[in-house]
Records
---
Amino acid sequence: MSLRLQNVIKRFGDFTAVDHLTLEIPEGEMFGFLGANGAGKTTTFRMILGLLDPTEGEITWNGEPIDYASSHLIGYLPEERGLYPKLKVKEQLIYLGRLRGLGKPAIIKEMEHWLERFKVPDYANKRVEELSKGNQQKIQFIASVIHKPKLLILDEPFSGLDPVNVEQLKEAVIDLKNAGTTIVFSSHRMEHVEELCEHLCIMHRGKPVVHGTLKEIKRSFGKKNVVIHADFPLNDLHEFPGVVKAKTTAEGIHLQIENEEISQRILSHIAGKGFIRKFALEEPSLNDIFIEKVGASYE
Amino acid sequence: MNKFWIVLAHTYFTKLKSKSFLITTMITALLVFGVANLNHIIEFFSDDETKTVAVIDKTNKLYEPLKAQLKTSGKKDIDLQMFKGTEEKAKEKVQNGEWQAYVVLGYDDKQLPKAAYYAMTVADSDTLLQLEHALQQIKTTLATAKIGLSPEQVKELYEPVVFDKVALEKNAKTEEELNQARSLVYILLFAIYIFVIMYGNMITMEVATEKSSRVMEILISSASPVQQMFGKIFGVALLSLTQFILLFVIGYTSIKGNSEMTSIFGFEQIPVATLVYAVVFFLLGYFLYATLFALLGSLVSRIEEVQQMITPVTLLVVAAFFIAMFGLSDPEAPFITVTSFIPFFAPMIMFLRVGMLNVSIWEVALSIGLLVATISFFAYFGAKVYRGGVLMYGKTTSFKDIKKALQLTKK
């Protein structure tokens, strides 16, 4: 059981929105989709859902193309949030749930469970327009998971939420993953992806520029970060051979270096010059990788 | 359950329960009930007040005959009073509201009655006309007596001419039947017009609301756009039939229970065929326009853009209605015959023809056939546009977007 995209291309007239995308997402994995605005994330999701047909290539779930016959297996939280403003939460969820093939009693049971979990049990009989934006988002999340989908697609699930709600939603997503749901989600918040995903893919202008597990990606990136806090000036490190980037901070300096070796040379270079309060060799953050991969081709 | 039925049931029941639907249905029902009982309502408001009119009879011979004449005409709301005073006095009494008016009766130079009517305003034409009419009768009697005609001769003189109208075509409707058909057809045409516009708009608003509130993306990922579009169209059709039947039953029973109105509307014998045709043509018209309205609704990203998008289509419905109104007075005009085959006009104009004339069955079949073909085409085309249209956001300005929407559904 896996979601497989094979050489998928999508063109709108002359514009290529998705260019030769090949992915395989194993069952029960959480897959992160990163990309700047307009990188082709939403188009890819729409193709996975069958709302758009790929110009070339194919998309299969368990070896079969996804269409409306399998819509009860799939959950989708679109990037643009929206529900019927005039309908009550309960009516709303019943309608959307039934469209996903669930019966009314089961929907009500699930709804109560989820509203309880999000600590808003009294919302069932409120109209959506009365709720705050963050709470509407929770309701929409419930709508996308109420039928216990096997494949869940979340387009920017955490955008616009306060930190408490982000935590609540994150926990819910992790629980769903542990229950065996395959989850694909997109974000431009690197820390969320770093925290949640084993697999990820960075899209840029329709092309996957980085693709693999988080560990592999970090390892193959090669470059490391060095953080130094010291009482003496470190400005000469800007020009140190092997340093790719340097940024002076209040307490010292952040360096990006070509490989681990460089760090030792830096250490011996600054040793004895004064008091060093901190010297740390760190893994590159996803943010660094993203900026490097996507930012580089902007230039 | 098939998703088509889920969408249909959802559309139907949410709309049925909505306040706006309940209120419009109630108001329309009251209106229908009111029109059906118009005569009672008019009576209720105008029964009691008798108007006092003073008479200054300079001849001393005309007052009694006038009073008698008014009595025989059966109207009792005018109270005639003899007044012996001066005109000045009479004028005062009218001015201070004691009397409605005063009439000065006299003879002209041929010794025939003449009168002058004085009132604060002469807008109350009913009182005035009754008096004038009564005096006219007296004058006729006097004048004919003067030239020596017997009452029999007078009667003969005023008897209306016998003028029969006979249509030679078999089954052709008599003038009387045509008049009766006309009012029923008029009412039903009006109903078709209002219903097509109202429910067509409802479809566009439904689709546009789903799009502008962005719930559409969840919907189209759960059920195919085609199922959704037709579920909605049929759900609203069911809603319109519910309202139509409700209003018809209220209107029909209250007019039937009111014999005076029955004859005014010519409802003594309602041709069942006309009613069946009305429902059939309404549904066909509705489906044709609803698919168009749904298609346009799918292109709109904000509610505010709905009106400018659907105006051209609304104008088509209005045009059909005006042609039909013209056809009411001349249903056999060649122009009407031609337009009754044009699908956009056919629902109203072919209905007008079958309601007023005896149209051969093949003509009706051809018109319906063309309509069904057009509906199928627009349903197919509309479903394609809808599928792409619901994914498009941004400024919607014109029909160019149809092309864009179609492109989206391609590979």
---
Amino acid sequence: MRRDDIHHILVIGSGPIVIGQACEFDYSGNQAVQALKEEGYEVSLINPNPATVMTTPGLADHIFLEPLRKEYIERIFDQVGPDAILSTMGGQTALNLTMELEKEGLLKKYGVKVIGASAEAIERAEDRGKFKDIITSLGYESARSGIAHTLEEAERIAEEIPFPLIIRPSFTLGGMGGSIANDRDEFRTLALRALDMSPASEILIEESLIGWREFEMEVMRDRKDNAIIVCSIENVDPMGVHTGDSITIAPIQTLSDSEYQKMRNASIEILRAVGVDCGGSNVQFAISPDHSRMIVIEMNPRVSRSSALASKATGFPIARISAKLAVGYTLDEVQNEITGASVSCFEPALDYVAVKVPRFELEKFPLEASALGTQMRSVGEALALGRTALEAINKAFRASEQKLDGITALDKNRYDTSLLLRSAHPLRYLAAYTAIKDGEKDLEKLSAITGFDIYFLSLLQEQKEIEEKLESGNLTDDVYIEAKKAGLTDRYIERLSGKKPPLKMIPARHYVDTCAGEFAALTPYCYTSYGEEDEGKGIGKDGVIIVASGPNRIGQGLEFDTCCTLSSKAFRKHGRKTIMINSNPETVSTDYNTSDRLYISPLTAEDVLSIMKKEGTSDVVVQLGGQTPLNMAAELEKNGAHIVGTSLESIDMTEDRGLFSSLVKELGLRQPDNRSASSVSEIKAMAHEIGFPVLLRPSFVLGGRAMFIAYDDNGLEEFIKKPEVAISEDSPVLVDQFLEDAFEYDLDAVSDGKSVYIGGILQHIEAAGIHSGDSAAVFPPYKSKPEILEEMRKWTLALARRLNVRGLMNIQFAEKDGKLYIIEVNPRASRTVPFISKSSGTDLVETAVRVWLGEDLVQQGLVKEEGGIGEGKCITGWAIKEAVFSFDRFPHIDPALGPEMKSTGEVVGYGRTFGEAYAKSQAAAHNKLPSKGRVIISVNSKDRKTIVPIAKALEELGFHILATKGTARDLFEAGILADVVLKTQDGHPNIVDYIRERKADLIINTPMGFHSRQSDDDIRTEALRAHIPYTTTTSAASAAVEAIRYIQENRFIVRELPDKKHR
Amino acid sequence: MRKAILKLKDGKEFEGIAFGSEKDIPIGELVFNTGIPGYQEILTDPSYAGQIVMLTSPMIGNYGTDAADNESDSIKASALVVRKLYRGPIMKGRVSLDDFLKKHAVRGIEGIDTRALTLHIREHGSQNAVIFFPEEREEAERLIETFPSITERDLIDGVSVKKAVYNPDLGEGFEKAPENPLKHIVMVDYGIKRSIIENFYKLGASVTLLPHTANADMVMKEKPSALFLSNGPGDPALLHDAVNLVKSLIGKLPIEGICLGHQIITIAIGGKTEKMKFGHHGSNHPVRDEITGKTFVTAQNHGFMTVASSLPPTTSIWFTNANDGTVEGLFDETLNVRSVQFHPEAAPGPEDGRWIFRTFMEKAE
């Protein structure tokens, strides 16, 4: 029964995307908001992540893109007066925040009830000591362990349990700070670090279960004690690899019914004992390789990444139903919307296999051989469904978009496969395949070495047999069909067999129906599989296919999923039927009610084309999902797809350097001087022609990888020596003029080919040379001359008309010395589209969809007359986007920023003043700007003048100023007294020592050029580790000053996101 | 790898690969089970006698078979149909599913589009099917034309004990009978699962298993605390002797039953049963307890059901299927009978209904 004692519910989101907390919480939050609205509650939402779907105007009643901090939540309590708070939808962040509100007495003060999971239940589940007691009292086994609050306590425990030992800090997300110690020395260092990371200075030390089998149960329980297992998941990777980094398979494959039921009973008993009585949780188990011991590892009393996965793997909407349970319903009262014929108090039966393969950024964040551990490192994941385990695994590897067609043997020239076999490494499973392909027949031995269950190795054996049949070159129909059924692509089959496939097979469409076919499914959630009977009919010409963005990765994540989701909604609103294709289980786009039809499928041209044929439509949208759909656009078009919007020819003109340069010339615009060098001597000659500094990058590498800024010949040498740089006629190096100290801009617009509507122009705060995705940016521009902005508008219109842009376009500009340059044009949705849409109050995605449906910008009322320019305004005063990084996951990696994107997420700060907006953006990004204390200033000679007013202001605000010698001298001349600190190369104590000892609260350090780069890097690295705010430009420093002013006022202003359209 | 064919009575054919035994063409009613693990328990469940079992879970055989998971002394299903048989190595001490079928002389077929087959049965209902090698086609087609439907077959005799057994030994991995029994349950064996007996053992009952031909005197001679009617295969409407037995004992002692036993009780107290289109066969069926209002997940395996409207006024519905509203259990205090349609002993499936055995024990006198 619906609870009538509450009326207004605050949903807490999870904030920016970081490793361990990604799109899955947009999905869960979005489902929760919808479910609560359906029940007629007033819903407020706090989440400072502008890229999310959940913060789209019109969904919740009150949307706050404010920092997830208790002060701001208290203001929301005060301002809009919710009487309940839903804590279980925003990951560990929301759970911790709820606990904090509870401990501070704020919930009591404002009469707010916690729904979803009670504070007591959260405590029992999260406090490792209490949880262990519960497990013991239920008669189950936990790993041998102890809890310590000091190093001494920790060492006492380490004497009792044999090494290796696992160390986990309490109350952190995604197992952050967890580590494995092999001996006493390692133990001491790691224990100290973990104590430091835990908000409660509490760590758990436990027996190592490395190499055991790992399982997970997704459980739901309601207040009537109805309990169900939604999904069981088995990790292909053994214990010792974080479950987020493991290849996983659902349902559990290797347990007998009696073993499975034991685990099932334990899961339900644990939920009951912990007191989860209105929502979902997951419980993790380890089983010894001989199946003689079952150990309970942990539980999460909330919706999690694995529950998003479980929802997509089974079709059971965990978050939605959790929200219903949170407001009083019981499982038997909630309909299963997929079948419409059953209640939600049942356990989904799967007649397929679901496999998740994590996606890593091995190139951006290289891992040591044994780098995977208790701390999550992957940035995204891909899900694939298949009728057999092998098919699903092959599809999932392909879907992870890591240049793999499926299970493939590793190149032994590149990888030390025997080392990988013994390492917790993302490539271990492929290393096992390599060994089997090389003739290893003793699967038991291989299982003992790798920790993979013999069952999963046996699947590799099957793959080998299929590959061998293909390699024999006799590609009969039977062999081909067998390979297709195993999930292999035509391309791979052709590569192995050297022959074109003998027949064209179109896969069958299967429905995910939660009931293995027992009832007819109402909700069209599909996957494809080869060689079986087809279900249902194609949507036909009414349908439009949206190719989404696949697994999250750096540079392509939530923002694009939001664009795809919004487009689906817009198409449907305007009468078209949508077919969404995606492989990312974390997303809203893969929610069963986002589109008319959903396919969980790898995003390759072959897969998309086969779906296109099945559905009987040729309209395909490729400009919303980032690079993934664009990369396949040509092949889609060649095979009969009609690319919706801007033509491929135009896209080509923007992507091909030569064509683009001619276009810039033709239109009389300006771009940085650029060349293409195919030899080392050419690079040098061109660099000198253009003039230093120059921006260098290999032409075949995307996403800014291996980009490098050279200030002189030494820099050129350094670049040339990089292992990923190979220079030849076929792979030239691009040499560009680098606009140092330029202001950079991002512009998002929609065009109908005649007019253009600019959603907004964003100005970057960080120095040029930092990837646009990594820099803080302001809407509207805060330091620009009107002429420059006007020029941008004109250039945008010229480009849009010449390229006949239909739909979205993003342009990056730079301004140096009063001159405007075009850096690049992307005729597609950009990362900033959701941010600009929200901040300007105009949904650019819907605008584009309406253009595609034939309604031009004049008809939409966004442009006054044909050939004109319309432009959005910031509806919140100021909007500042700040990038958020996950560097603390990679302690061995230099957190330096540059032309290669490294951030994983973003937040927004809104404010009436620039200071307010910037302060909030920093608070939301967990950059703790100080309100008092010490500031260390070290700036290059060019910045010595501009830093003076900043230093003066900081002095006035009560800061103690420290500066390196040269800076201190200049400040002294301007009348500011600064204590001198040493540079790192000048002895001790130096800047780094100050940072390590936490004797600095703010650091302003502008780049000193090539020669002091090492020391700049050291400072930045240490500041990041010590969580001390660090700015690299004087413009960021002056922004910080304005923010500090706001902070000192100690007012926590919350502003509801204005909803232009909906009121 | 030998090709084999699965053919349904209505003519639908699927080609696959044979496994298990090559002896004798299996014929029987084709039913599907949507449970995920538990193939061994299903195969050895005597309720499946006369039926060809098709599993919707596509990967079968992954963990082999283990003597402790047998629900009877042999495979009782006529044959097994799966999408993909696991043929790789398994844990030491276990027997592969392929070998298990061979040992029990049961045929299997893999590589079948089980999804299409399930949807076909959902559409057209359960029906007889046959599995044959290409050279056996003529014989198989003749067989399926003439073979009686499940409602015409007496399957009980093949799975019931032949004479009374006191405290049967359930074999490896199962509990033994209690040394100091609290109560004595007399069971009529229509094809009982070991786990049912074990659950009574666990609660301190001794058990006498009687053949399905038992009469009232044989029952009463055992001085039972309660009469229990087991699960079993086939159509309850054919079991006149069983119904008469119950009729003659109603009011004389508590009478309890599971699955087929529940259906026999239904008829004995004046109710009706009817054949379902494709039945309930799986491990995920929600059942609502009409007394407490609680819903829990159960294992089910039945193709016939109690018609709610046919029950006498004194009889209450104990459990209802939360999906389709069908009767899942009944009790009648005036007649001292209680029974459940689902399988509280699970095996395979969720054990959330095991408390039913406590009720059965409490009500035994």
